[in-house]
Amino acid sequence: MEGLIYLRMKKNLEIKNPMEVKLKDVAYLSSNSKTNLKELEEIRIYRITEKDKEIVIIDSFFIIKYLTENYPKLEIQLIGPEQTIIRISKYKKNPNIFIVVLVWLLLFIGTAMTIINFHYDVSMQAVQQKLHYLLTGEENKFPLWIQIPYSFGLGIGMILFFNHWFKKRFNEEPSPLEVEIHKYQLSLDDYVIYHENKLNDPKLPH
Fold it and tell me: 93 near 22, Cβ under 8 Å?
């Protein structure tokens, strides 16, 4: 077997049970020659067992080392990520409904208090009263015709800002929250790769 092989590692892989991981599971292969890619894709990379706990890191270095040793006529070109993070979802526990409700209530109350304190700090009620006086020439402590639409507008604005209504999206543009979650996930992946790389020498077939 000879030719140029382009190897691109998958950034993340999630599995539900311990299994035998093949090259096609952790990487994409492409070639500009008649190389038998199917044979390469079926190479056993690693066998995940109970000892691996929740995370396994597959490093491209050992894959390239194995391929060059066993297929000396192949030229390997690595593109993209250098590691694949395998997460074993079998060990994930279903969230406790009591804890979920408690966290939701804390967030709801905290958000409500934040909005109330903000409006108090900027004297929103006084502003609305003055606006009512400028428009009607009458004084009113509770200009509901301004306050009610403002309250609905505040909620609708938050929904549009986060671009979500439960599971429904209004457009394909990610919300600021999704962008921050994505940044957090990238940082988490970097941390895992640095601290949890237990795969010093994968048990490739010989």
Answer: no
